[in-house]
Each structure stands twice: as structure tokens, then as C-alpha cells.
Amino acid sequence: MCGIVAYIGPKDATTFLLEGLQRLEYRGYDSAGVAVLGKSGALKVCKTKGRVADLAAALPARFKGTTGIGHTRWATHGEPSDANAHPHTDNAERIAVVHNGIIENADELRAKLTAEGAVFRSETDTEVLAHLVAAHLGDGEGQLEDAVRAALKLVVGTYGIAVVDSAQPDRIVVARNGSPIVLGLGEKEMFAASDVAALVRYTRQVVHLEDGELAVVRADGFRTFTEDARTVTRQPSTVDWEVGSYDTGGYEHYLLKEIHEQPAAVERTLSGRLDERFATAHLGGLNLDARELREIRRVKILGCGSAYYAGEMGAQLIEELARIPAHSEPASEFRYRNPVIEADTLYVAVSQSGETYDTLAAVQEIKRKGGRVLGVVNTVGSAIARECDGGIYLHAGPEISVASTKAFTSTVIAFALLALHFGRIHDLSPADGRRIVSALKALPGHIRQILEQDEEIAELAAKYADNAGMMFIGRVRGYPVAREGAQKLKEISYVHAEAYPASELKHGPLALISPELPTVALVPDDELLDKNLTTLGEIKARSGRVLAVAHRAPEAKLADHCILVPKSEPELDPLLLNIPLQLLAYHAAVALGRDVDKPRNLAKSVTVE
Ligand code: G6P
Asked: How many angstroms does the Cα of residue 304 sit away from the middle of ligand 1?
């Protein structure tokens, strides 16, 4: 949510800032802006409502500088507008600030600064920071890093910030508290960003700031220190992912690329974790031995959006394979309801980005109450990963498109591994363990088979895309699939979609069924097949249209169209049934001319409440 970039060095900063912002645009995309300092130190700011492309078009021809900061925004305080876009400046136009996060005591600080003479020109909480830093610099020759440090001491909230001072063009000051900041180390030049995606084209050597840390960044290096001015030493690390992982790689959209990357992502999630000898899974990062795991009586899974639905599939897997009661709940609800934390419950936080504020807050609440939390997280070293007691990294690779696909699938795989591990410690037989191990190994091939139907699914999507709404139904294992399928369609195509348990249809929503509201029905070949076919009959009897996603095509009188998926083991079938729904949503969105990778009103990682 919101992206930050910064450059200092011998080259023109604007080139990097614009390209970096484009790479971070998936995090927020309702306005963008840059500020640069020329060698003489003159501060130039350009910002606009709209996309980074609009900013590039709005830049004056002579907008040059060798020190600069930039921002792409997802509005929280104040509507998307030119005035509310970052960077924000003080009244003397000396200081410029870009900020991710929320300043909770902004109103109070604004009132105080206004009384002291500051004139505010935006509705944002961020502008407070610009005036506050300027107030601490005063008219004197103070160091920018000291002024930022002093200003942040007065601030309550979360932030990742980058600050420049026209009187000190040889430095940029960055700080982190709850919103990531990464430094990129170049040859006689330095970069900073809220996400390595902006940096990989320029450098692979990075330094992640910790919460409560600041850095003063100069062309020839950096110094990190705490809010109490204590210097801390941070060793650079090398970014693992290839530059190509951050490109569309010849696909029309990141979303399509990420859907097609799923076989490889699943292989990485499974890599080195299957134990054929004992028919179990090895999960080195759990930090729980077999005895501790045996004491767990319940599993509670927390996540937001698709992470929550992946958690629902995970809960089913744990209950089925380990026979431990498991339940998934939106982290955004959990954290506000004074949850009862039990010693024999294992809490699992799910997050692709590892930054989602509601999920992080849920983890902190559990830990504060003495509970034990594992993370199922894609982004290594992210805030949620660090906060948890242990966990499973997905290794799905960077996910850029706002709607989650490969991270969703890898999350379900991670839960299958956890459930297998748990199950084999409890009562899952070696034979059943072997059955799951070999089914997991076959999944990448099964996913490839489904992806080969891309064109047929595109044709079906075009047939169904122009309806005002769609119903998604599934029974028991199929219900989380229906929920995620409906979520994906809404997110990227803006077609209204509702998910219902197939068993509940006749208790209300059957009243909605008509030729104008088609149903996507999940019809696995399992012990509930007959029940599902009966439901299809009930829909067809009300002139409803049915698109079945099934292992065997239902009779023509029960379904108008069918997408066939390969059969896995019943516990793992939901994961495969979900793949065609991703393609269906993608192609429906394309058919409707939507901005697939950057759907309206959304952002990839929601780092605010
Ligand atoms: C946002 C995105 C969703 C995503 C959710 C959780 O709401 O729009 O697509 O599923 O955040 O993100 P996380 O990074 O925690 O998995």
C-alpha cells in the first residue's frame, strides 16, 4: 500500500524514481509524485492525481536533480487529488517528505503546528511530518537526521518515510516503523524503496531497516541508527529473485503470468519438504517438536481476503488429515473482538506480503496474551514473518498483481504439508501419508493440465462475463473454493459474485436463480457427488444456467458448460478446482476491459487499519 522510492548519486534521479514507481504501482495507484534536488539544492516537486504514467506526462522538461524521492499513493487520509499526492513540503519549500502508513496523532500535531504558523495545503496526515521536521531544523544548521529523529519522537503511528532537505542535498533520511524501507547499495550511488521490486534492476545488495530505525543515506554509503541516536550495524544481504521475476515475462498481465507460474511455485513450496520414508513432511521453521505439537488441541487460522480463504482450505486439510479442530477467521475481525487465547491452540497467520496491518495486529494481540503463532508467509523477513514464533515460507516468488493466485495456491500447499506433518504425529496412517505425499508430488503436473485449457476457459468467460452477477456454490471442501472463486471475479472484473454452500441454496438464495444469474458449481467426484448433482437439478429446474467445474462432466441436462479438472486425492481436490476459477475471473476481466493487475479501489498490501 503506497510505494516509496529514493535515489542519491551522480545520475539523474528522475529516471530511477519514475521506473521504480512504476514497479511499485501495484501497491497503490491513485496519485503519484516526485521531488528532486539539483546540485545547487533547489527543491522541485511534481505530483498529480492518477497513475505514474500521468506523472511522467506532467513532469516539466527541465526536472532534473541528483537527489530525489518519489511516491505512489493509495488514499487513506484525504481523497486522491494533486494536493493530497506526496511528496509534501513545509511552507518554506525546504523539506519534502514521502510516507507510507498512518500518523495517528496527526490532528493534534496539525493543531499545534498551525498555532505556530504552519499553513497546511493538504488533508493528509503526512504533511504534518514535513512541517514537524522543518520546525526541528529551525533556521539553523542542524543535521537533517537529527531533525527527523526528533520529529518522529512526537509521532504516534506507523511509517516508512523518506525525507530530503534542500539545504542538505548530500543526503536522504529514511525511517521505518511498521512500514518497510529497504536500502539498495550501488557503485557511488544509493537507492531506497519500500519494496525490493523497485531496486532489483539497479542492485541486488540490500539492507532491510528494522522497526524504530532510521538511516542517513549518501551517495557513498549509509549509516543506520535508532530513534535514540544509537548507531546500529546492518549487513547487506543479496536479493534472491531474478530480475525477470518482477517483469511480465511476455504475458499480457502479471496476473496471467502468475497463474501460469503456479506449477513452478508449487514445486518450490514442496521442495525439500516431503519425506517419503516416513510418509510425512519436514517443516524446519516450525520451531515446535513432536511433543509440543501433540499438545495442540485446536488450530486457529487468521488472514485477510484471499489469505483468509486459503486459511479455510487449510483448516479443512488439518481437520481431515490430523483430526484436530481447525477454523479460519478474518484477522480483521479477530483483532477487534477481544479474542480468547488458549494455551493449547496453535494460531497461524497467513499473509502473502507479510505486511497486512490487520493480520499483523492480530499476531501482536495473540502474542501479547501469551499465545503461540506460526506464520504462513511469502515475503521473507516481512513484519508478520518476524513477529511470528516460527512458520512456513511459501517461496512462491514475488506476486505483483493485486489479486492473489500463485501465493494462494502455495499457501494451500503449505497447509497440506502442515496437515500431513500434524496427521502423521497423530493418527494418519503411513498408507494415508504416502497417498498424500504422492498426490502432492503430482500436483504441478495436474495444474499444468488445467492451464492448457486456457483458451477454452477464455471462451467460456466471454460467454458468462456480461451477466450482472454470478453465484458460486460448493459443498464442504468445495465451499472455500466457491468463496475464493467469487472473490477473484469481484476483485478484478467488478461483476457481482456471491458464494454459497451448495447445501444452503434451497434455504434462501434459490429465489435468486434465473437465466440472468448463472451458477458456477464445484462438482468433485467425491462422496458428495450425488448431493451436488441434485443441487444442479434444482438450479436447472428454475431455468438457471450452470457452469460446472468437475472431474466428470455432469449430464447435459444438469450443466450448460463444464470445465474438467484432473482428479487428485479428495483432500487436495479443492486446490485444483480453484485454478479454472482464476482463469475464468482473469478472462472475464479482460473481456470487460478491466485494469486486471490494478483493480479499482484496491491495493496489494493493505498496511493500514
Ligand atoms: C488485500 C488484497 C487481497 C489480499 C489481502 C491479504 O486486501 O487486495 O488480494 O488477499 O490484502 O494480503 P496478504 O498480503 O496479507 O496475503
From this structure: 6
